[in-house]
Amino acid sequence: MKNRDNDLAAKVQMAKSSLDRLSESDLEQTAERVAELANDNIADLTAYGISAAEVAALNTARSTFVSTRRTPGTAAVQRSTNAVASSLSKSEAVK
Hints:
Layout: H1 2-12, H2 16-21, H3 24-40, H4 42-45, H5 52-69, H6 75-89
Helix pairs in contact: 3-5, 3-6, 5-6
């Protein structure tokens, strides 16, 4: 079990500053990867202080970001980018 935890942590480990520097496309891919892993491991995440509500918030922020990203030049894209980065940064893996 410990090796599985370490493998999962390695897949989502990142610094908040690195999230801030990601392009929109890379942020979308990162959020998708983290959301998929969170959804697949939701039962185990509570032990690390990550609630189902936080995983749901990440999924919502990611979906909103993807849909608003399709409308270039809007302030909504920036708000969605901030929401995704904020949801990702709440993860224990982000330091």
